Amino acid sequence: MGAPMAQRLTDWPGGLVVCDMRPDAVQPFTEAGAKAADSPAELAESCRVISIVVLDDDQVRTVVEGLLQTAKPGTVLAVHSTISDRTAVELAAECASHGIEFVDAPISGGAPAAQRGALAVMVGGSTAAFEAVRDPFSRFGSLVIHAGDVGAGTRMKLARNLLHFVAFTAAAEAQRLAEAAGLDIAALGKVVRHSDSHTGGPGAIMLRKTTAPVAPDDFWFPILGHVRDLGEKDLALALDLAARLDVNLPLAHHALHDLGDGLGVGPGPIAKEQS
Fold first, then answer.
1. 141 sits in which H/E element
2. Where do the DSSP E strands lie in 9-106?
3. 221: number of Cβ within 10 Å
4. Would you state the pLDDT for residue 72?
């Protein structure tokens, strides 16, 4: 992820400095005109906005420790790795003691989006820090959101990935049902990707600013009520097929029971009947 992000900054006004433990990872950037630093401390001597893309909390802590040896007051350190929000808050406090701004700015969209400059970047930090990083982050992110104070960016990423991987688990259930029904599950995958590219997938219903119940006279009530009714009908049909094929679909059972409440309109007649 870090390489395509950095690639989009090679012509950044003022220059780009790169640092990596692997010389082969740095070489394409130096050949494109970037400077190379042998260590985080060396890099921080000449950079005012520093993006960190490493594996986990321990690596982030190690890199930040090196950067703080030489970083000048006013420098902004941005961590794009998905780490614990508690780690982000702790590192922000440590950076503040050196006069350094810290933002947690996890990214979503994968390497293809990074290559196109189309990542979603969720920034947790002060308003001043967000303004400092908005323009450079816009080189690799087509959506740069100020999620709130330090830690908020990571919390938003965790909520986003909760949906992502629960959806993967649901996809596994769908494949089991399709396979038991004698269907081509690769063809099913094509249908899912095609239809989600038009409907927006699960994010299509994430339009309200609250998860509170929807009042019957609210604009959203008939819309979400219609979604619930369709969903309960289709889930019940899928569960009936699964019962005939002896396929266990625990997520589908939860979905039928919880869909209406999750949408804020309460269970529909099918869920009430099967509860």
1. strand 141-148
2. 17-18, 35-36, 49-52, 76-79, 101-104
3. 16
4. 97
Q: Which residues of the chain have pLDDT under 70?
A: none
**Contact call for residues 125 and 132 (beta carbons, < 8 A):** no
pLDDT value at residue 216: 96
Catalytic residue set: 157
* Tokens read off for 195: 């239809």
- Report the distance separating Cα 199 and Cα 207, nearest Å: 13
- Give Cα 93 distance to the centre of its chain: 24
107-108 and 119-124 strand pairing: antiparallel
First to last CA, the chain: 45
Quote the pTM value: 0.92
Distances 2 to 33, 66, 87, 178, 217 between C-alpha atoms, Å: 17, 18, 20, 38, 48
Q: Which pair of structure tokens corresponds to residue 76?
A: 């902004």
Beta carbons of 256 and 239 less than 8 angstroms apart: yes
Contact 83, 56 (CB under 8 A): yes
Q: Other CB atoms closer than 10 Å to residue 195's CB: what's the count?
A: 11
Token pair 């569960």 is at which residue? 239
Q: What does the pLDDT look like over 90-127, one tens digit per residue?
A: 999 999 999 999 999 999 999 899 999 999 999 999 99
Q: Let me know if 79 is exposed, middle or buried by CB neighbors in 10 A (0-12, 13-18, 19+).
A: buried
Pairing of strands 49-52, 76-79: parallel
Cβ(38)–Cβ(65) below 8 Å: no
Alpha-carbon distance 240 to 53, whole Å? Answer: 47
Residue type, 129: A
The tokens describing 19, both together, are 């640092």
Longest dimension (CA), the chain: 67
